[in-house]
Specification:
Layout (H helix, E strand, L loop, with lengths): L1 H63 L5 E3 L8 H10 L3 E9 L8 E5 L5 E3 L3 E10 L12 H11 L8 E3 L3 E4 L7 E5 L10 E10 L4 E3 L8 H10 L3 E8 L8 E5 L6 E3 L3 E8 L8 E23 L5 E20 L4 E6 L2 E7 L2
Parallel strand pairs: 2-5, 6-9, 7-9, 11-14
Antiparallel strand pairs: 1-4, 3-5, 8-9, 10-13, 12-14, 15-16, 15-17, 17-18
Length: about 350
């Protein structure tokens, strides 16, 4: 009887365990079925949450890197550089400075112009171009005494070239005899060191050279053209040459007469006349003649040079000498077709072709 009871109890336990497992299996199946039925909305929810998260991140990023604030460009033209930089700093703008010479004395360090212009709307951190005055090119009168007048004149012209306002203008110079070399500045007004607050006229006294100096009167009668040219380059006597066709008893191409002068010496750059007997025909392929030009009268003798360029393009200098200006006459003997060019202090004055 005991045995029978145990078998029944075991059977009941077995049937009870199978029931629990079955119940669990059914519950799991029902859960899977429910998940299967509601799975599509769940995926959409996850996707939406992901998109929402991306949008939030993007919004945070753009807020973080938001563009600089827009500001109004201040007007700093005419202000000193320190004040302009302070205004730029307040507006969170950064200057790019360019220095330039000015034409107004006393405005060194002043803002001359700006770009962008005042009133423009720009973003903070923008570069603003500022042109700052570095002062006038020259603010004091220099010491010109002892310098050459031509050099000073050229320097001042070059100094103010390209500007609309010339601070120094050279007035008509006064010349006087002095032991200094001709063209040397002896005195100036205003004196050196004078402040330039407005345009001035510089007045100079210039040396004519030692005009009291005298020279020996040369005798050129019988000289050939080449000998006369050599004498011209050495002497401080000015000869005004004329010519006539050589007669039978005259040697062609030579000086046959010159003006008489009472005395052995003559003042420098005094004028004497001289006459050539010139051949009517070429001699040894050379054409003879007198080169003539009318120049302005110079305050002191300047260097004159007569150059030649032959038809074969051979170039050479015929003569170089000092001359006070006015009428200039120079004898020559060159091939026909040669171009003669006269220059004064390096500046071309006249060109003639020998025919």
């Amino acid at each position: 009887m005991k045995f029978s009871f145990n078998r029944k109890q075991k059977k009941a336990d077995t049937e009870s365990g199978d029931g629990v497992q079955g119940a669990l299996r059914i519950s799991a199946e029902e859960d899977m079925k429910a998940l299967s039925v509601g799975g599509r909305p769940f995926v959409f929810i996850l996707l939406g949450a992901f998109i929402l998260m991306i949008c939030a991140c993007a919004a945070a990023f753009f807020i973080t890197v938001k563009g600089a604030e827009e500001v109004l460009v201040p007007n700093v033209e005419g202000k000193d550089l320190a004040s302009a930089l302070l205004e730029m700093q307040i507006k969170e703008l950064y200057p790019r400075i360019q220095l330039r010479y000015s034409e107004t004395p006393g405005d060194e360090g002043t803002i001359l112009s700006q770009e962008p212009a005042a009133g423009s709307i720009v973003k903070a951190g923008r570069r603003i171009n500022l042109v700052v005055s570095r002062g006038v090119i020259i603010d004091q009168v220099e010491d010109y005494v002892g310098q050459k007048f031509d050099d000073v004149q050229l320097r001042i012209q070059t100094l103010f070239s390209g500007t609309s306002r010339t601070l120094i203008t050279i007035g008509a110079p006064q010349y006087k005899a002095d032991v200094s070399e001709a063209g040397t500045i002896l005195e100036q007004d205003p004196p050196a060191g004078t402040d330039i607050s407005e345009p001035i006229v510089l007045r100079l006294i210039v040396s004519r050279g030692p005009s009291y100096e005298q020279t020996r009167v040369p005798s050129i009668v019988g000289m050939s053209v080449n000998d006369v040219l050599t004498q011209m380059s050495r002497s401080k006597v000015i000869f005004d040459f004329s010519s006539h066709p050589a007669s039978e008893n005259e040697k062609p191409g030579t000086v046959v007469s010159q003006q008489k002068y009472s005395g052995e010496f003559i003042r420098n750059y005094s004028r004497l006349t001289a006459d050539f007997a010139m051949p009517e025909q070429e001699i040894d392929g050379l054409k003879y003649g007198i080169f003539s030009a009318m120049l302005q009268n110079f305050p002191y003798p300047l260097e004159l040079k007569l150059d030649a360029k032959t038809p074969e393009n051979e170039e050479y200098t015929i003569v170089t000498f000092n001359h006070p200006g006015g009428q200039v006459t120079i004898p020559y003997a060159v091939p026909s077709g040669t171009i003669l060019s006269l220059s004064v202090a390096g500046r071309l004055e006249r060109t003639v072709q020998v025919r």
